[in-house]
Specification:
By secondary structure, this protein is of the alpha+beta class. The chain has a 3-stranded mixed sheet with strand order 4-3-5, with no helix packed on it. Strands 1-2 form a two-stranded antiparallel sheet. The longest helix has 14 residues. The chain starts with 7 loop residues before the first helix and ends with a helix.
């Protein structure tokens, strides 16, 4: 997947390569995720889609299809208002098995990507790790007043 922000033609191409039907809601959701600096909750995606956005069920279905096709990763985060514990970001921002860590502030409830933080892939005796996610929670620099 390209690292640049997909516009209409690029979003359509990504959908075609993933074997997904090209629809306006799917293209719009892909463009929102590409423009985001980090992982977004469903409510944030809806807000960024603007007033002419698709209904929330169509957005959930698009996200589920993207996750199943490997275009988007669902980041398991703490449950805060508006995120239901899942955030979404383009899959090209993570390696196959190893996604960069994420940090959620318990005060402002924003989740940030931590691509510079390296966490080695955990090896668990007798287990085959298929994907590793690290999620940290605490208070961000802005909320801590530093």
């Amino acid at each position: 997947m390209p690292a640049h922000r997909p516009g209409k033609p690029q979003a359509a191409e990504l959908l075609s390569r993933a074997g997904l039907r090209r629809t306006q809601p799917r293209e719009a959701v892909l463009r929102v995720l590409a423009a985001a600096a980090g992982a977004l909750a469903h409510a944030e995606i809806m807000a960024r889609l603007g007033p002419r956005r698709p209904d929330r069920v169509s957005v959930y279905r698009a996200l589920d299809a993207f996750v199943a096709a490997g275009l988007v990763h669902a980041v398991e985060a703490g449950v805060f208002p508006g995120n239901n514990g899942r955030l979404f970001e383009l899959a090209d921002r993570c390696a196959g098995k190893l996604c960069h860590p994420h940090f959620t502030c318990r005060v402002c409830q924003r989740t940030s990507c931590l691509p510079a933080v390296r966490v080695p892939l955990v090896r668990a005796a007798g287990c085959r790790v298929e994907r590793q996610q690290v999620h940290l929670e605490g208070v961000c620099r802005q909320c801590a007043g530093s």
